[in-house]
Amino acid sequence: MRPNSRNRAYLKRLLRKDDDWHNPYAHLSKEDAQIELAARNIRLSKDANDSRYALRCALQAEDDQRQIPFLRLPKEVRLVVYEHVVSDDPVGLARPPLLSVNKQIREEASPIFFRLTNFRLDVYQGAYLASEPKFDLKTRKWLEIIGPDGIKELRNISLASRNEEYNIDLSCPDAGQWSTTLRPRVYTPKPHHSRQKCSARRVKTLTAHLADARRAIEGDVEDMAQSGEDPIYLEKLLEHKESAHECVQNGMVMFAALRGEGKSVEPTIDGLEILVDAITAKDQKMRDFVNAILRGEV
Questions:
Q1: SS3 helix, strand, coil % of the chain, rounded to 5?
Q2: Going by C-beta distance under 8 Å and a sequence separation of 6 or more, which residues neighbour residue 170?
């Protein structure tokens, strides 16, 4: 290779590409790198602060220079410490400060953080349309940031739709064990049946909510039959509730078949979208029933 300007530029590009390959911060945007440096109280010159490459190099240099006595402890002890620190942090999509200390701690503690934390993922309001995204913008951005490696460590999530928020253990294939909080409400819009409540405002599993609704509806069906009224409306309501419950159970079965269950579960973005589709189908089924009532078809 001749020592001319063209070859020097080519060699510089090769060295930079090699540096990017080995730099753990190569995937960070300029804004994320600036946030990471600010968390470590590292200040750069104005010119360097505007360069994504300089920011990444500064982060890597800081990792190389940082010597922490904590890392001399056995790994088993460090993992126990991570569990306590992560469990004490507020629940949210933001990563705890622990993960900004250095590369080694981030790699060791990140799986624990994702496994122990319950993350709220907001469903996009237009998710029932095939052409629309499944999650809102904030959630989609967060899933992109943590990437496939972070998503596969998720174990507990809350999927918040328009009507309810579902707390889901991704390792459990039984959707009946999802928990949710329903507002106290009349289970039927017809005023002469307004004495029954579908559920109290407290957290219950979907199985418990369905059992409460079944008992309430069956009680009113019996009362109506004794008074000579036609209970077909309430019977249809119960059928729709049971059918809606089957939607989420079928979705959980599909998720488990695709991504595993128990200790072997490894979620992906496609798997999470299956659950969103199941919740959307459940909500849509109940909306269709209410619309049928308003049209006088039931």
A1: 60, 10, 30
A2: 154, 155, 156, 157, 255, 259, 265, 267
Question: Is 27 a member of any domain?
Answer: yes
Number of H helices, E strands in the chain: 10, 5
For 110-120, write each residue's pLDDT tens digit: 999 999 888 98
Tell me which of 28, 44, 65 is where a domain ends.
Answer: 65
Distance CA 184, CA 198 (A): 7
Query: Is residue 127 helix, strand or coil?
Result: coil
Last residue of a domain, one of 82, 97, 116: 116
Tens of pLDDT, residues 133-160 = 889 888 999 999 889 999 999 999 999 8
Residue 253 lies in a domain: yes
8 Å CB contact between 266 and 152: yes
Reading the block at residue 38, the tokens are 């600010």
Question: Do residues 106 and 188 both lie within one domain?
Answer: no
Strand partners, 179: 167, 205
Q: Which domain holds residue 255?
A: 159-294
Please indicate, yes or no, whether residues 163 and 290 belong to a single structural domain of this protein.
yes
